[in-house]
Specification:
Low-confidence stretches of chain B: none
Largest sheet of chain A: 6 strands, mixed
Largest sheet of chain B: 7 strands, mixed
Helix content of chain B: under 10%
Low-confidence stretches of chain A: none
Oligomer: heterodimer
Mean pLDDT of chain B: 93
Shape of chain B: globular
Strand content of chain A: over 45%
Largest interface: A-B, 23 and 24 residues
Number of strands of chain A: 11
Structural class of chain A: mainly beta
Structural class of chain B: mainly beta
Number of helices of chain A: 0
Number of helices of chain B: 0
Chain lengths: 114, 113
């Protein structure tokens, strides 16, 4: 099946710093989503971005589908940004039954200190 | 528009009991997915359902686990004869027929004593 690798595994920042999280995937995708799992365990949908660039406030994401990677940018980080960031993908060449199945990376644990 | 609803949010069971986890998808969403997050691990796909049909259950353990999404009512993930290794967070997600984006519920934390 498709492989998803995220880097770095851990990231510690001071409030106000910027960061870039990376997601590499091993095959063409028709779905790529970024999630934030907050310290209470809730999964927050950040972006649906199988290709291109999107921005939402201090967050932005870019997926270069031809090179099989996606980047999540966090600017002016805040303590509330702490948590685990997951990238999840669905392969584009899967059969019909695998269409909806998301494969998650292992996540990047972000800690933002005040 | 309410988000994906899951209940209970926390569930404690003793070994050998049954656990029933419920998921109500967002309004207008006919696709439901279940994922499991074991302690210190990422999320793993379990099953993908549409109304009254199981589309992909390749991630479901072969024994003790079952899922349904009836014509009326929530989707149910059922775990029979629970064991300590079933302790995990179980997340449900839903999507509308025409879109790929999956929206996740708050999860059910299952603890097996």
């Amino acid at each position: 099946g498709i492989q998803v690798e995220q880097s770095p595994p851990d990231l510690i920042l001071q409030e106000g710093a910027n960061s870039t999280l990376r997601c590499n995937f091993s095959d063409s995708v028709n779905n790529l989503q970024w999630f934030h799992q907050n310290p209470w365990g809730q999964l927050i949908n950040l972006f649906y971005i199988p290709s291109g660039t999107k921005q939402n406030g201090r967050l932005s994401a870019t997926t270069v589908a031809t090179e099989r990677y996606s980047l999540l940018y966090i600017s002016s980080s805040q303590t509330t940004d702490s948590g685990v960031y997951f990238c999840a993908v669905s392969p584009a060449n899967a059969g019909g039954t695998s269409y909806g199945k998301l494969t998650f990376g292992q996540g990047t644990i972000l800690t933002v200190h005040p | 528009n309410a988000g994906v609803m899951q209940n209970p949010r926390h569930l404690v069971r003793r070994r050998g009991q049954e656990a029933r986890l419920r998921c109500s998808p967002m309004k207008g969403h006919s696709h439901v997915y279940w994922y499991r997050q074991l302690p210190e691990e990422g999320l793993k796909f379990m099953v993908y359902l549409q109304k009254e049909n199981i589309i992909d259950e390749s991630g479901m353990p072969k024994e003790r686990f079952s899922a349904e999404f009836p014509k009326e009512g929530p989707s149910i993930l059922r775990i029979q004869q629970v064991v300590r290794g079933d302790s995990a967070a179980y997340f449900c997600a839903s999507s509308p027929p025409s879109q790929k984006t999956q929206y996740f519920g708050p999860g059910t934390r299952l603890l097996v004593l």
